Amino acid sequence: MDTSQAFGLAHLWSQSDAIIRAVALALLLMSVTSWYLILARLLRQLRARRHAGAVEAFWAAPDLEAGLHRLQLQAPESPFEALAQQGAAATQHVRRHTRGDTLGGKLDADEVITRALRKSIALSTAALESGLTVLASIGSTAPFVGLFGTVWGIYHALVNISASGMATLDKVAGPVGEALIMTAFGLFVAIPAVLAYNAITRANRVELSELDAFAHDLHAWFSTGSRIAPLAASHAPSSETPGAAAALPASGAA
């Protein structure tokens, strides 16, 4: 019989015991789970790139309702839309249930808006980090799971060889080589998970920083009726920002 046919994955599976098969199935489950999470986050990142101009479109809208509508069209179910909707809802709640003509009323309104924006950011952060713990766990444990399968496979092979009394090189190399496949499987599962975890973590940091900046602008506008101008644009002519900064307060004050 050909050596390549005598020893291989099929031969390893047929000669393995329940523990080796359980390790192989565990690695397969880890691989399927990690690739599902990777592809799901990749699709989400592709959608997020299409939402890049939604924030500027919001600030360029003639009023708040139009801005929220633009966010809903250009960035549906995104953290930016959720943040703006939450801030708008909090502002409407404050106007209905607090008195703004007193210092206490103004302080309470600012606190309500701040808490609403923080809550939205916290929910968005939890959604962005969903699945990262699983990816990190797979990336850190898969090599050891594969190594355990290798150690157990070598032990199982040596026991069989000693029982048969044939300890020649050709009888040892095949079973030991098959057992080493489990380590390779563990690395095959772990490496994509680790790389994806690092990439997703970096992308989350960038998106959360943009979301935090948007929250500061929203808080300033809902509290004072004016968006904080970017530092680079603070010395620019006033005609560059009237559509965004001057038009939105008109609806907010309504």
From TrEMBL:
GO biological process assignments: protein import
According to the UniProt record, one GO cellular component term is:
plasma membrane
Keywords linked to the UniProt accession: Cell inner membrane, Cell membrane, Membrane, Protein transport, Transmembrane, Transmembrane helix, Transport
- What is the superkingdom listed in this entry's lineage? Bacteria
Q: Which cell locations does it reside in?
A: Cell inner membrane; Membrane
> Where do Low complexity bias regions lie?
242-254
- Which residue stretches belong to region Disordered? 233-254
Membrane topology note: Multi-pass membrane protein
| Regions crossing the membrane | 18-40, 132-159, 179-200
User: Assembly and interactions?
Assistant: The accessory proteins ExbB and ExbD seem to form a complex with TonB.
The family annotation for this protein states: Belongs to the exbB/tolQ family.
What does this gene product do?
Involved in the TonB-dependent energy-dependent transport of various receptor-bound substrates. Protects ExbD from proteolytic degradation and functionally stabilizes TonB.
Check the record and name the PANTHER family matching this protein: BIOPOLYMER TRANSPORT PROTEIN EXBB, PROTEIN TOLQ
| Protein name in UniProt | Biopolymer transport protein ExbB
Q: What is the organism field in this record?
A: Thauera chlorobenzoica
Query: What is the organism lineage in this UniProt record?
Result: Bacteria, Pseudomonadati, Pseudomonadota, Betaproteobacteria, Rhodocyclales
